Amino acid sequence: MTENDSRFLKACRGEEVDCTPIWFMRQAGRYMQEYRKLREKHTLLELCTRPDLAKEVTLQPIRRFDLDAAIVFADILLPLKSMGVGFDFVKGKGPVIHQPIRSPADVEKLHAGDPEEDLKCVLETLGLVRGELDPKIALIGFAGAPFTVASYMIEGGYSRNFLHTKRLMYSHPEAWQRLMETTSEVMARYLTAQIEAGAQAIQLFDSWVGSLEPEDYRRYVLPYSQKIFARLKPYSVPLLHFGTGTATLLELMKEAGGTVMGVDWRISLKDARGRLGSNTPIQGNLDPVALFAPPSCLEEKVDQVLEQADGRPGHIFNLGHGILPETPVENVEAVVEWVHAKSKR
């Protein structure tokens, strides 16, 4: 098997496969004992920025489960270094921005920097992982989409209502434009470098964009995500576009770009495919909390996703968001086995 013949990459291209490929967002992380042992000795930032450690964490779920893709272990906030924005991971709180961007004057201080140099650690990790992966397993690179990354910078961390983000967006449209242009430039260069370093597919995470109404998405977000996908298109690798709470935005997200659309559990795959077009490869969409269900219920949930996909080419099985930290490992293993066995053709 050549690398381009991997089950995951073929499904991303809408080609026939022997069974449905599967991987999980956040498949490397706190639910695994192997990861927790490393985390006892190293900070999250160390795990992300030391290529030897990031390689190990990336490969842990690949050794444990029969997954069809690995995703490089990193964090969507790492590119902030190239923009002059300081941050840290605080226990019990998650990421915290040292000086949130709240005014046009704050935006003026940002710069595009040199992500290829500043994030060399991630690029080295990709090379190390590619050197060890079986050709049948694809390697995914990723970055945060401009809106989601900008929201972190503005809110200073997690937000429920995105008050500060929307206030800046509505009140200072010129500053918002500059912020999004700078962010999208950094992400485009970062993702281009990831492809050149060995990533065989790219996923753009717009995890928070579901907080917007469609008209705001079209005006304030779409042009900048579109810019990133346009820059990556010449590389001819699968481009996955994912967000949560985006049932009202699917058509607009497709317009923004990407060759594979990720959907969460709030919309059925059947409905999503009907709106996106039957020729659009799709990824999803088991509820991450379903992994906590009793085996009979969990298996029923897996069956529902596969039934909605209807065995047609161009489906990648995944969760509708990332694996939660307390997830039972045995349930993850069961889902991988069920998806491959039940979709065999």
How many strands, what sense, and barrel or not for the largest sheet?
7 strands, parallel
Total count of domains: 1
Could you name the ranges where pLDDT drops below 50 across 5 or more consecutive residues?
none
**Beta-sheet strand percentage?**
5-15%
Shape summary: globular
Number of helices: 17
Strand order of the largest sheet: 1-4-5-6-7-8-9
> Averaging pLDDT over every residue, what do you get?
96
What's the total count of β strands?
9
Cα-based radius of gyration, to the nearest Å: 19 Å
Helix content: 40-55%
Helix-strand topology string: HHHHEHEEHHHEHHHEHHEHEHEHEH
Query: Which architecture name does CATH use?
Result: Alpha-Beta Barrel
Instruction: For the record, give the distance between the C-alpha atoms at the N and C termini, rounded to a whole number.
Output: 18 Å
CATH topology: TIM Barrel
Please tell me about this protein's structure.
Helix 9 crosses helix 11 (173-197), helix 10 (163-171) crosses helix 11 and helix 11 (173-197) packs parallel to helix 13 (222-232). The protein has 17 helices and nine strands. 48% of the residues lie in helices and 10% in strands. The strands form two sheets. A seven-stranded parallel sheet has the order 1-4-5-6-7-8-9. It has one domain: TIM Barrel (Alpha-Beta Barrel). With 345 residues, it is an alpha/beta fold. Helix 15 (269-276) links the parallel strand 7 (260-262) and strand 8. It has helices at 7-12, 33-41, 44-49, 51-64, 80-83, 104-108, 115-118, 120-132, 146-155, 163-171, 173-197, 214-220, 222-232, 250-256, 269-276, 295-309, 329-342; strands spanning 69-71, 87-90, 94-97, 138-144, 201-206, 239-243, 260-262, 282-283, 315-316.
